[in-house]
Amino acid sequence: MFYEVIPAKNGAPEALTYSYEGEILAGQIVEIPLMKNKVAGVVVKKVEQPDFACRAITKILYSEPLPKHLIKTARFMADYYLVPISSVLAMMLPKGVLKSRRGRKKGSPLLGMSENGDFGEIRLNPAQKKALEGLQKAPGATKLLFGVTGSGKTNVYLKEAEDALKTQKSVVVLVPEIALTGQLVKVFQEIFGQKVVLIHSRQTEAERHLIFEELLSSVEAKIVIGPRSALFAPLTNLGLIIIDEEHEPSYYQENPPRYSAVRVASFMAKELSISCILGSATPTVEDYYVAKKLGSLILMTEKAKKEAVRPEIEVIDFKKREEFSKNRYFSNSLLAAIRANLETGGQTLIFHNRRGSAPMTICEECGTELVCPTCFLPLTLHADSYELICHTCGFKESVPSSCPTCRAAGLVHKGFGTKLLENELMRLFPKARIQRFDGDNKKDEGLDAVYDKVKEGEIDILIGTQMLAKGLDLPKLATVGVVQADAGLSLPDYAAEERTFQLLTQVIGRVGRGHIEKAEVFIQTFRPEHPAIQFAIAENYEGFSEHLLRERRKGGFPPFKFVTKLELTMKTEKAVISKIRAVGRNLNKNPLISVSTPMPAFHERTAKGYTWQIIIRAKSRRAMTEAIQGLDPNFKVSLDPPSLL
After folding, report:
1. If DSSP codes are grouped into helix, strand and coil, which group holds residue 142?
2. What span, in angstroms and rounded, lies between the C-alpha atoms of 59 and 39?
3. Whose CA, among 93, 115, 196, 583, lies 20 to 30 Å from 189?
4. 294, burial (CB in 10 Å: exposed 0-12, middle 13-18, buried 19+)
5. Using one digit for the tens of pLDDT, what is the confidence trace for 477-527?
6. Rounded to two decimals, what is the model's pTM?
7. How far apart are CA 427 and CA 431, in angstroms?
């Protein structure tokens, strides 16, 4: 007998024909010879004997085939994102799938075994019950649960998951960060016990392999929680997908095969006729726009706890130096609040968007930032040529000698990071227990590792980046200080304004959740009047979305146009410029797409060489994908990227 098999290996052919003496089901995972190696493959179908010699399938790895929805999802991803299906399957299968693992005793597997179906009690308030009813009545497979911070979206997730389990359907819950996984797992485990399965990148290869094997063979409904890779858990009876903090860019995989977990989950839900719930207090403007249009938007506008208080928010203008007479980074008001917290036992969270520490060109007198006249995005300083360049359309101008708004000569390039802030606070408050949380933390220093210490108030001052803004419930937190609220606005990216609004809204939502009587937020900024800052302070998402949609329509960005980023890296600057300009000229012949001037990438020079990029925009996604079919494989293609950086 002969079978068509897709090798699950990057760079492998799309499909090959192999022989095997026996019946194999479509979707079964097998071991096949490929060149001089043995690799895993997925059987597609039985075929007629070809007119050429075929190598034999070495062995069948699992008797249970992959669920059909995963095979269909792999094909969708290959077509939609222009990536080889062999690469998609290589990502879906666990690493080391060919290895033999020592088995586990029944009753003590990594997943756990549920002895009965009794669940803990899930109490919903009237607003949460209304949201649940709205989700069940909303049209389509994908629904957007837009709930303000502290509204209790997790309770709605729990109830939806309970309903799925009662019908013997499994649930996938995606979270954006490993740091948040443990917190959500505890909440789900309190209700569902050992039905909860955790998947994350810090598990060993063997652990993830064994979890895959047990899920593949399990007939019991489970709740799988993890980052975007958890979406591909081999569940034969998937009945619900939940994506928490759906706006997070970490749901987009930057490495090949590049894809959006939100978009793939939507396809999966439609294919299975199940619900995909997107939850957020700050959804992406594209998802909000579409959900509102389709009638699949469900609102939760009330705080879950009656005792929740609205924090007192003070905006401090960085240009008013008298406000910073005691320290150049922390205002007098923020320093006073930190001292008071140290005396009363309250916690302080110092938030800084570290990615925004790249220099920005801004006027110290009036706060004007230099932006592209075409894209309305921040310009980036290139010190070698002393030019300001737009990394989206290629616009260039010499650095002006004075501010174009107020004519003052005080144009500056600013930026600082979390490490400097930590050192400064340790100097100012030597007896305080201070800890920094960012991408530089070691495994045992990360937020997930010390979350219980943080929750119990054993750390006085937390300093960090985005991870501290996301979904954390900190009972002792009394004060939030945003060191430089406009830092992210300096990035040359169409999503910079939205990201700033999201982060500010999320970080403001960390306090006033009903744990303490008084909550304070100090927002330090060069641009207190900026819409992203003003709308975040007012907790006015609707107003911000209307503002941003006007800007997106004017600039030609999602949801009004599709976007693709093409990047090329070569050893010499001359070579990359020559190559990318030639490609740009060829693409420009297509009247259905808009092609930017080739320009340096945000991170132009790395150890690999020089990177330049082209941005393509089009009203039709098909027109855009057809235009780049057959492109030089050395190009890095990012379809529908959440960011242009």
Report:
1. strand
2. 11
3. 93
4. middle
5. 999 999 999 988 878 899 999 999 999 998 998 887 656 778 899 999 999
6. 0.87
7. 9
